[in-house]
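Consider the tokenized backbone below.
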């Protein structure tokens, strides 16, 4: 198993098994379409309790305070847009819409049976207080409600995870 780390937003993410990791933000396919299209940093396939879960991971250095309503809402909009766009780009790539991605994407992510896989949307904020995280998670859930609750995609009911650096370190997501 080959593993490296990636530096994003002042944190070092552990990629674990390279066969389960795809740095989509650095992909050639994304480089071709990136104008006005925002996506998350990477995808990471995990196997908790025998399930297959594709984590779409976005890293941020900080977050505006919830009381700074305009800036906070812009931040939530951006994060949500990145999560949804990354989900769509992954699905489009699997469908062959982005030919370059298929050559770059690890086989485990290319050939995964999506009928049994689930998705999580993971936001890791380097400089965030633990007590801020529930408000951020609630705002993302509210913004993604139609996407998550949409019966077309059948995504688990609680796919949004918001962590600060301390919690991400405890979970082994960062070094």
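A designed sequence for it:
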């Amino acid at each position: 198993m080959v593993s490296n780390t990636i530096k994003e937003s002042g944190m070092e993410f552990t990629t674990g098994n390279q066969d389960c990791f795809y740095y989509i933000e650095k992909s050639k396919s994304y480089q071709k379409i990136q104008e006005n299209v925002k996506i998350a940093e990477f995808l990471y396939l995990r196997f908790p309790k025998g399930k297959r879960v594709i984590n779409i991971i976005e890293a941020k250095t900080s977050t505006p305070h919830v009381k700074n309503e305009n800036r906070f809402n812009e931040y939530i909009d951006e994060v949500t847009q990145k999560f949804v766009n990354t989900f769509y780009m992954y699905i489009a790539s699997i469908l062959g819409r982005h030919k370059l991605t298929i050559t770059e994407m690890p086989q485990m992510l290319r050939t995964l049976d999506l009928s049994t896989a689930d998705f999580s949307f993971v936001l890791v904020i380097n400089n965030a207080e633990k007590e801020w995280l529930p408000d951020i998670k609630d705002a993302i859930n509210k913004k993604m409600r139609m996407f998550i609750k949409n019966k077309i995609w059948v995504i688990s009911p609680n796919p949004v995870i918001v962590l600060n650096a301390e919690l991400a370190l405890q979970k082994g997501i960062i070094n």
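The two ends are 18 Å apart (CA to CA).
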